[in-house]
Structures
1.
Amino acid sequence: QSYEDQQLKTLEKSYTRKDWQGGYKSLTQEFDYWIDDVEGEIPPELQGTLFRNGPGLLDIQGQSIHHPFDGDGMISRISFVNSRAHYRNSFVKTAGYLSEKNAGKILHRGVFGTQKPGGWLANIFDFKLKNIANTNVIYWGNKLLALWEAAEPHRLDPKTLETLGKEYFNNVLSAGEAFGAHPRFDPNCEQDNGAPCLVNFSVKPGLSTKITIFELNLAGEVVRKHAHNVPGFCFIHDFVITPNYCIFFQNPVSFNPIPFVLGLRGAGECIQVQPNQPTRIIVIPRFPQSGQKEIKTLEVRSGFIFHHVNAFGVGNEILVDSICYDSLPEVEPESDFRQVDFEAIAPGQLWRFYLNLKDGTVQKKLIESRCCEFPTIHPRNVGRSYRYLYMSAAHTESGNAPLQALLKIDLESGEKQIWSAAPRGFTGEPIFVPRPGSEKEDDGWVLALVYDAAHHRSDVVILDASDFTKGAIARLHLQHHVPYGLHGNFTPQ
Ligand code: 3ON
Ligand code: FE
């Protein structure tokens, strides 16, 4: 028995912190190869491309960044062709990435506390944001776009992954204008005669906050853009749509910018969750030009939300499923994110909210108490009623722990299926890919990157979405690890 195994036994944990930390090492190299080391079989019907984004660098030439959300965006592309798979990765060559690579040191402050070396004097009054393009990657309108919610997208060549520059959508965006990192894909937009469209938002916070909504057609053109002012400071990372509404949960936070101004903290470290304050739910009609105009605001106590699963209307109600945190860990200036004490922080848990648009009341119900994150569903059901969801989750049922498993929930029957990579595997965001021509909602595959600490490498894991209990149908061993990532998307092309 190895030392690690013994340690696991005595602590009765499903992981060791040392193993987990391995997934937060930088990957500096760029690769381009066919994946030859495959366990199981890649289904021949699985054809297309999985794009993923996330921090690739957790340090700049040995100077550690303060938080993974500050890491430079790196795109991984896994292409599936005739039961073979190809891997390629590339850093988004943002101005900030290139200048720091050249200088060999940190030159820019990060939103989540990365500071220029030299203490507060070196950082005071520096309000510039480094657009790190690290949060999501989408393929839409024949463009591959790396997204970061505080600035404009970066466009890449889908074949070579070369960075082509910033994307302004034909001057719809102005220089530095934000385009969020969590677009939703409406599979059947009524306003566009049933064609799919992309709905995204951006947030410009201040004493009051401007929320802008963008809708793009299949050609990638912005066909609708409208802005709304809402009272108070907003930190909103994600949203949900229905055929008629965009729904935002205004997290109960306060923002004190003084430590940021003085060079002591990143802007994101000046946000404090106020667990006793209600969350404001802002319901904005998607088509104010032609239909309903007025915004509705409801209130509920929900804790802090990064990610939502989905929303849909039933009678007078809209149901919203979201992952909620009772509190958020304070990112302290002197702390090291790799030393996190998992048990000391609150787990993300899945809740269902019932918004009554008629009388303005909100009910809520806990669906899953197991620590979870990164939900995904069948793309056909976005904004519509749905039965199945998939997410990354902890190996153990209670408490807070790293994500080591993939969890499927049948919202109709309540049945849950779990596939675990513990003790030495750590899971990222799953993506559901429908089997071509399928009718059943869970007929398809769930794809995820799993960091394997035993080999310090990552696997692309393929599960049969209709049955997690039979284990992975394929594990594609990469030649290297991919640092824990954020979001991605699959395209059948
Ligand atoms: O006034 C400003 C408003 C605003 C939009 C304040 C601000 C400068 C902080 C800001 C910018 C916000 C940004 C850039 C947010 C970026 C978020 C990000 C990169 C990632 C969020 C990830 C969320 C989760 C839940 C990740 C979970 C990860 C794991 C469980 C690890 O495996
Ligand atoms: Fe996110």
2.
Amino acid sequence: VNLVEIKGVYKCYHKKAKPKEYAVYKVNLNIKKGEILGLVGESGCGKSSLAKMILKLEQPTKGKILFNEQDITDYSFSQMRKIRNRMQMVFQDSTNAFNPYYTVEQIISEPLNNYSNESEKEKEKKIVSMLEKVGLNKTYLTRYSHEMSGGQRQRIGIARALILHPEFVVCDEAVSSIDYALKKQILNLLTDLKQQFGLTYLFISHDIAAVNKICDRVVVMYLGNIVEVISNINENVQHPYTKALLAATLFPDPKKRRKNTVLFREGEEIKVPEKGCVFQNRCFYAQNICKTKQPDLMTQKDGHEVACHLYHHC
Ligand code: SF4
Ligand code: MG
């Protein structure tokens, strides 16, 4: 059963864009109930735009988004309000996401105030129980965000996202700004909570190790296009771009990483090719056909999907 269905979705931020200058291009994707779907790719690849469209924080230029089999693409603000509490988001750095003048209790009760009219006592009980679920306790109620560590703030962000018992949670770089030991804890927490609450996650990250650790499937995007969908970013990846991403994780040293010419370098601007494969300018395997024909995303026997001419004859 699919919780989210993305059907032929395009997003374009400027009106006169050429066909290929889309932030999100022709994306078809389903998110199954109960799965953790990873979304990887470098900044600017369309990950965040896609997530915002699913949450209806942005409107697709073309295409449809279904949530629980309802077409929400043209939902009005008030229609959306009824299901808004079913979808939540955990952000990268909760430091800036929180009002510095709010206590933890105020931070977590914000969504409750918007969606329920329980008494203060009931709310506090709920908040304390949620704090315990994320590994904290009621002594945190009166703390301010600057009085906590990065890991504690991340737990507060998770508590706030889950307080309304959503079905679907987008984790946008949720473990990207924390160190290794802490990252492991937060990833374990996210998987535990997923089991407990029967959640479905869209886990956006450029951290391949984190994605491999918790995701059931991983979607790879490059310049707005899905180029590969696979169970894990491992030696079975086929798309030349995914191979480059994987190779980069084997050289975590940024100095060595810079030698990986396939990937973006800081400040570099990438021109979207007018036709053909979006990755042609950086691909070591590009052939003539890659300059003229865009490869479709094709599904192989095991559900592995790849958009590359190299694999289309088999
Ligand atoms: Fe490279 Fe061609 Fe495959 Fe694109 S379609 S990734 S250019 S081989
Ligand atoms: Mg982003």
